[in-house]
Design a protein that fits this description.
Elements: E1 8-11, H1 23-33, E2 37-40, E3 43-44, H2 58-72, E4 77-85, H3 91-100, E5 105-109, H4 121-128, H5 133-149, E6 155-156, H6 163-170, H7 179-192, E7 195-199, H8 214-222, E8 228-231, H9 244-253, E9 258-263, E10 266-271, H10 274-282
Parallel strand pairs: 1-2, 2-4, 3-4, 4-5, 5-6, 6-7, 7-8
Antiparallel strand pairs: 9-10
Helix pairs in contact: 4-6, 5-7, 8-9
Bound molecules: zinc ion (ZN) (2 copies).
One zinc ion (ZN) binds near residues 12, 83 and 233.
Length: about 300
């Protein structure tokens, strides 16, 4: 049996253009696997022509999520979240939208692969040719820092997502060689009160580790970070809660004993029980076996 987890704070349903899972399917899996609470964080884009630009309107999001929440009657609890594709050039539009549309929980993320050098493998290869990691990714970190400093989001999603696109051209993005870049962003999170997300999707993608890696989560705590949260970022049925226990383990190892989440008006702490922490830290959590925890 997988270890029960209190929250998966990042899930995409068929209200996202790149996902195909009806909300009820996730809810059934959550009930079966003991994930107590879900944040449905479908995409929204603010650049005309991007896939989630005017894709699912607000009323539909609210209706689908609130009706499901009622049907599932708290097992699991289902929250209306949102994942905003952040762009500094559309920050005004994002600010206006969030001021006029209520969500329980909002993630801000910098996405690649729609415009720019990482939109397809060929342009990515050409972009990376002759560049260092640092040179190839500088524009991404600047954008992430803008997102953090905007103060618009509860959580910054998949902090170092760019490594998904650079790995095949430049190799693994090593923490030690780029600690200064991470420090800059982590300090921004601390200053702005934005939570750091440990996003498990990197475990099923080329980097083979969460966004960001455990060393970054540990450094965040060292720098005074208090707000951290975990999400699977599932887009397919088989990705539900995949690697989520591994993300929790990274959080527990770093010394955190609660997750930071928002349920509408209130930011809340979601406690990690002693039993959960002991299970996570005491047993190997297989990244390749979904969220299975041996010995639990
Ligand atoms: Zn994302
Ligand atoms: Zn996502």
């Amino acid at each position: 049996m997988p270890v029960p987890l209190p929250l998966d704070a990042h899930l995409h349903t068929d209200l996202s253009p790149d996902a195909d899972v009806p909300l009820d399917v996730y809810a059934a899996l959550a009930r079966e696997q003991g994930v107590a609470e879900l944040a449905i964080t479908d995409h929204i884009d603010f650049v005309a022509g991007d896939p989630a630009y005017h894709y699912a309107d607000y009323d539909r999001r609210v209706r689908v999520v609130r009706e499901a929440a009622e049907r599932w009657a708290g097992e699991p609890v289902i929250r209306l979240g949102l994942e905003v594709s952040y762009g500094h050039d559309v920050e005004g539009e994002i600010r206006e939208y969030l001021a006029t549309h209520a969500y329980d929980y909002v993630i801000g993320s910098v996405h690649l692969g729609r415009q720019g050098p990482f939109r397809d493998p060929r342009t990515a290869a050409a972009w990376c040719a002759g560049k260092s990691h640092r040179e190839a990714t500088a524009f991404y970190w600047d954008e992430v820092e803008w997102a953090i400093r905007s103060g618009l989001f509860d959580t910054l999603g998949h902090l170092d997502f760019v490594k998904r696109y650079t790995q095949r051209h430049l190799g693994p993005f090593e923490y030690e060689a780029h600690a200064d870049i991470y420090d800059r962003l982590l300090r921004g999170l601390v200053d702005s009160g934005t939570a750091l997300e440990v996003n498990a999707s990197g475990l099923r993608q080329e980097p083979g580790e969460p966004y960001p890696a455990p060393a970054v989560v540990a450094r965040f705590r060292e720098l005074g970070g208090e707000r951290v949260v975990a999400g699977s970022d599932a887009h397919r049925v088989e990705q539900f809660a995949f690697g989520l226990a591994e993300a929790y383990r990274s959080i527990g190892r770093a010394g955190f004993r609660e997750l930071s989440f928002r349920r509408g008006r209130d930011r809340v702490a979601v406690e990690l029980s002693t039993e959960l922490v002991e299970t996570l830290l005491g047993a190997g959590v297989g990244a390749n076996t979904g969220r299975g925890v041996t010995g639990a």
